[in-house]
């Protein structure tokens, strides 16, 4: 047991090289998902009937396709029609599209919880619908969505090892390289699990702290 612990500690620095890549993938994917998710949420609430049907199909598709399959479609499939993305961008697109479908539900719920009277108040002050959405509704919706966003961020973080499937050197890829030379899978996978667990808990409590600091007065943010 002591030997295994020493081996893990010896190889921790190499595994930690993949932490930066894992965080970069997570942040880039979640930001792409946020932009698309907010857009889908607004269109689902305020769009025309045909547009609402389009975004409903969008959500249905990207909630139903496994992320690994979507990643392979982007990385291996799209080059067949002339769209070539590198491994990193392919992973970000794959995880971001899947995340956007779930984030859209989070933001839609936050927007609907604000109430239509604030939209009416903005319009009565002479603001356009777009300005009312951007300056009044959106800031509150983002703050109200922080608990759900926290869960989604940690989910994307735990999905980041899928990058290994296209050869990106993140935590799991470094771990596999060590296993090939050492033939000690238990210790290496345990070390990878510890790193992901620490990252998960760190970001989880960070976003919980942010959510508590920026909660909207008059709204109760419940733990999710």
General description of the model:
The protein is an all-alpha fold and 224 residues long. The chain has one domain: MetI-like (MetI-like fold), CATH 1.10.3720.10. Helix content is 80%, strand content 0%. The protein contains nine helices and no strands. It has helices at residues 2-46, 49-64, 67-77, 87-114, 116-124, 129-144, 146-159, 171-182, 185-213. Helix 3 (67-77) crosses helix 4 and helix 8 runs antiparallel to helix 9. The chain is flat and about 70 Å long. The mean pLDDT is 86.
SSE blueprint and pairings:
Layout: H1 2-46, H2 49-64, H3 67-77, H4 87-114, H5 116-124, H6 129-144, H7 146-159, H8 171-182, H9 185-213
Shape: flat
Question: In which range does the helix fraction lie?
Answer: over 70%
**Largest beta-sheet characterization:** none
End-to-end C-alpha gap: 37 Å
Structure summary:
With 224 residues, this protein is mainly alpha-helical. The chain is built from nine helices and no strands.
What keyword list fits this structure?
single chain; 224 residues; mainly alpha; MetI-like fold; 9 helices; 0% strand; flat
């Amino acid at each position: 047991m002591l030997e295994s612990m020493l081996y893990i500690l010896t190889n921790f620095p190499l595994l930690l090289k993949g932490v930066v890549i894992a965080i970069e993938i997570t942040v880039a994917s979640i930001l792409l998902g946020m932009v698309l998710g907010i857009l889908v949420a607004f269109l689902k609430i305020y769009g025309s009937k045909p547009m609402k049907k389009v975004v409903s199909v969008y959500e249905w598709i990207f909630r139903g396709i496994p992320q690994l399959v979507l990643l392979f479609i982007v990385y291996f499939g799209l080059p067949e029609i002339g769209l070539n993305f590198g491994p990193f961008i392919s992973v970000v697109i794959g995880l971001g599209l899947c995340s956007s479908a779930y984030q859209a539900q989070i933001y839609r719920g936050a927007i609907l919880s604000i109430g239509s009277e604030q939209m009416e108040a903005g319009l009565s002050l002479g603001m356009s619908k777009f300005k009312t959405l951007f300056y009044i509704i959106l800031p509150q919706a983002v703050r109200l969505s922080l608990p759900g966003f926290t869960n989604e961020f940690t989910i994307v973080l735990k999905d980041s090892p899928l990058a290994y499937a296209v050869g990106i050197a993140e935590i799991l890829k470094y771990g596999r390289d060590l296993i090939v030379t050492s033939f000690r899978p238990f210790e290496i996978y345990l070390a990878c699990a510890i790193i992901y667990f620490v990252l998960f808990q760190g970001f989880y409590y960070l976003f919980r702290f942010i959510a508590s600091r920026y909660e909207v007065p008059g709204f109760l943010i419940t733990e999710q």
